[in-house]
Design brief:
Distance between the termini of chain A: 60 Å
Number of strands of chain B: 2
Structural class of chain B: mainly alpha
Largest sheet of chain B: 2 strands, antiparallel
Largest interface: A-B, 44 and 45 residues
Structural class of chain A: mainly alpha
Strand content of chain A: under 5%
Distance between the termini of chain B: 13 Å
Radius of gyration of chain B: 23 Å
Radius of gyration of chain A: 20 Å
Shape of chain A: globular
Helix content of chain A: over 70%
Oligomer: heterodimer
Number of helices of chain A: 13
Strand order of the largest sheet of chain B: 1-2
Number of strands of chain A: 2
Strand content of chain B: under 5%
């Protein structure tokens, strides 16, 4: 029994970081008032660029490249949404479409339809002292992103709730005019949050192609960006909440895969498709129960205009 | 320049710019003769979309025209219906990202009615279409109800409902309870074949897959346009979209208008699924494959959320889609039509940039001609 729990936890810790980073990126962007529907596209370019870079440079450096690629896409989003007050959902969806078609085009013209050649994965760190301890043993044997994904939510939560910068970021998503009254630049704060969110989404994508897989594949990230949005809403737009939600989704996924392999009888009772639909149904259910009390930032999706009140 | 032309101009310019960017992209990803290849690829795309006129005039049979045009119109029908779905929701101020899921359920409903109900053709086709429309409307209505009664934002709920529909249909119903059984008793992928009485009639014989779905989609665009522009409920729907506080103050039943518009949006997307199943696929295949529902978002926005603009954008991108397969003859990648569409949407997202550029040009031109007499239309934003 303990062995099974251990394996589940291990699988969760292996799979969760991509979702956690993307969800944190979404939280950062949306707390500053800019809708993050483009997260999926940012993950995709992050995953693609990291995989391509890892063919020539050391993998850790390639991960940084993936982050920068995600940030570059986010910068387009920021330019359109902040400078030109474009509809944030439209811009995000357009970026998703471009990332999907452009990624497919670049992948297939350069590497063929089966994905990039295999790359050197990020090295897993073994902690022998931990691995013998029950339950904590699952903590050993992961690559660096897993440990970062365990720490970053707390850091980001502290940043948002305990520092002046965090207060300003949250204020810019709730009452941008109040922030402007203080002489702070609303566009600058939003730019920072959106590009920061892009860095995190790019990191999430890079994790997919450098640790979960050892290449970039046609379908990466296969809707994980939208799951990240769900995790953000599920976690009520807080870093810790999004982290817990993302971890929960990842655990559910590990559980589903584990059950499918170890208890095939269950699939007779509950069809695979129903299990696959469960996280989405659950998210809808939580949203329904939270109702109006689910607190999206007040100025989310509203372009900021100095003149308007 | 008329008001209407100025509304449409950013979209036209965006599409032109995306065509230019992709042309350059083809040209620069070639080792030699890039510009020649890119140009001939675009020519191929054109002949593949609107018919191979040079060949036809050179004496080839008429099928070199009907086949491409038929394919383009068939794709345009699907894009029109999903585009209208997104546009109608937009008119009432809701963002329907769920056209894909609604289309999935519509396709499934059409496949079930088409295969498991026995009716004469005159009744069977309408019955399957109505079934699809109801299924789509119900799925969209769920999102509308969540929005109206529980304040759940429709962008998130429709994204989630897309996934629920995909998982339940593709990973359970179609491979499980609704899986078709072939003659020899062996399972096939997808649901059972629909009865011939439910199939949409072909319009150009066996040469092309063009079917009754195309005129139906064009009729739908006209009907939605007439409804929005010429009826009271259509006017009220637009009023809600422009500002629900003001609409409520004017005595418009805001919740009912929003709910009905969203249901109509779902019905249109459901019909797209029905056209796909009844017109070309003949059953719900293992997976619906092409994301026509997501394309609908792009089509609607490029068409400026105007029913007739949507139809125009769908016709254009239908032709690009059909022609795109011919570009592959020149080793140009098949995802270029999608890339053109995505870039066009990105440029449309920058609508205000276009308007600013156009305004600057307009503001400069009269000032040079008559520096002292301001033209009356100049300050109009």
């Amino acid at each position: 029994m303990l062995e099974i729990v251990n394996r589940l936890l291990f699988a969760t810790l292996d799979a969760a970081p991509a979702l956690v980073f993307a969800a944190l990126g979404a939280v950062l962007s949306e707390r500053a008032g800019v809708v993050a529907v483009g997260i999926e596209g940012m993950m995709r370019v992050g995953a693609f660029c990291a995989a391509v870079a890892a063919l020539t440079v050391p993998t850790p450096l390639a991960v940084v490249g993936g982050m920068l690629a995600g940030a570059a896409l986010a910068a387009i989003h920021a330019y359109l949404c902040i400078r030109w007050r474009s509809d944030q959902v439209v811009s995000g969806i357009a970026l998703n479409l471009v990332a999907l078609a452009g990624g497919t085009f670049l992948l297939e013209t350069h590497y063929g339809p089966n994905g990039t050649p295999p790359i050197q994965q990020l090295t897993a760190w073994d902690w022998p002292a931990l691995s013998s301890v029950p339950l904590l043993g699952a903590l050993s044997g992961h690559a660096a992103p897993t440990y970062l994904a365990l720490a970053l939510p707390f850091l980001l939560q502290a940043l948002l709730t305990r520092t002046p910068l965090g207060l300003r970021l949250r204020a810019v998503g709730d009452k941008p005019h109040a922030v402007a009254t203080l002489g702070l630049s609303v566009p600058a704060l939003r730019w920072g949050a959106v590009v920061g969110g892009g860095l995190l989404a790019g990191l999430g994508g890079a994790v997919l192609s450098t640790t979960v897989l050892d290449r970039f594949e046609q379908h990466t990230p296969a809707g994980l960006g939208f799951m990240a949005l769900a995790a953000m809403v599920f976690g009520r737009w807080t870093p810790l909440g999004a982290f817990l939600a993302a971890a929960f989704f990842a655990f559910g996924n590990a559980l589903r895969i584990g059950l499918a392999s170890s208890a095939p009888g269950l699939l007779e009772l509950v069809p695979q498709g129903v299990l696959l639909a469960l996280p989405y149904v659950l998210t809808l259910l939580v949203l329904t129960l939270q109702g109006q009390r689910s607190r999206a930032p007040a100025a989310l999706g509203v372009p900021y205009e100095q003149e308007s009140r | 320049m008329g008001e209407r032309a100025r509304q449409a101009l950013p979209s036209v310019l965006s599409v032109a710019l995306s065509l230019l960017v992709c042309w350059l992209l083809i040209a620069f990803t070639r080792d030699a003769d890039g510009f020649v290849t890119a140009t001939s690829a675009y020519l191929q795309m054109m002949w593949g979309g609107i018919g191979d006129w040079p060949n036809f005039l050179g004496g080839a049979p008429a099928t070199v025209l009907t086949r491409p045009i038929g394919e383009a119109a068939m794709k345009a029908a699907l894009l029109t219906l999903t585009g209208l779905s997104v546009a109608v929701a937009f008119k009432v101020g809701l963002f329907n990202i769920g056209a894909q899921g609604q289309m999935l359920l519509g396709a499934l409903a059409a496949a079930v009615v088409g295969a498991h109900v026995q009716l004469p053709a005159a009744l069977h086709i309408p019955a399957a279409l109505v079934g699809a429309a109801l299924a789509g409307a119900a799925w969209a209505g769920l999102a509308a109800a969540l929005r109206l009664y529980r304040g759940v934002h429709e962008v998130i709920s429709t994204i989630m409902l897309n996934w629920v529909a995909l998982r339940l249909v593709d990973n359970w119903l179609v491979v499980g309870p609704l899986r078709g059984v072939a003659e020899a008793g062996a399972s096939i992928t997808g649901t059972a074949e629909i009865h011939p009485s439910a199939a949409l009639p072909r319009l150009l014989g066996d040469v092309s897959r063009l079917n009754l779905g195309f005129p139906l989609a064009m009729l739908a665009a006209l009907a939605v346009w007439a409804w929005l522009e010429r009826t009271r409920s259509g006017f009220e729907t637009r009023a809600v979209g422009l500002g629900d506080e003001a609409a409520r103050a004017a005595g418009i039943p805001v919740a009912r208008r929003a709910g009905l518009a969203m249901a109509l949006a779902g019905a249109l997307a459901g019909c797209a699924g029905a056209v796909l199943v009844l017109g070309t696929e003949g059953r719900y295949p293992g997976t619906l494959g092409a994301p026509y529902g997501f394309d609908g978002i792009a089509i609607s926005l490029i068409g400026n959320n105007h029913p007739l603009g949507v139809a125009a954008a769908a016709l254009f991108f239908g032709a690009i889609r059909a022609g795109g397969t011919r570009m592959q003859l020149l080793d140009v990648h098949k995802s270029f039509p999608e890339l053109i569409q995505g870039l066009a949407l990105l440029f449309v997202a920058g609508r205000l940039i276009w308007l600013a550029v156009l305004r600057r040009r307009r503001a400069v031109a009269p000032a040079l001609a008559t520096p002292t007499a301001p033209t009356p239309e100049a300050p109009r934003a």
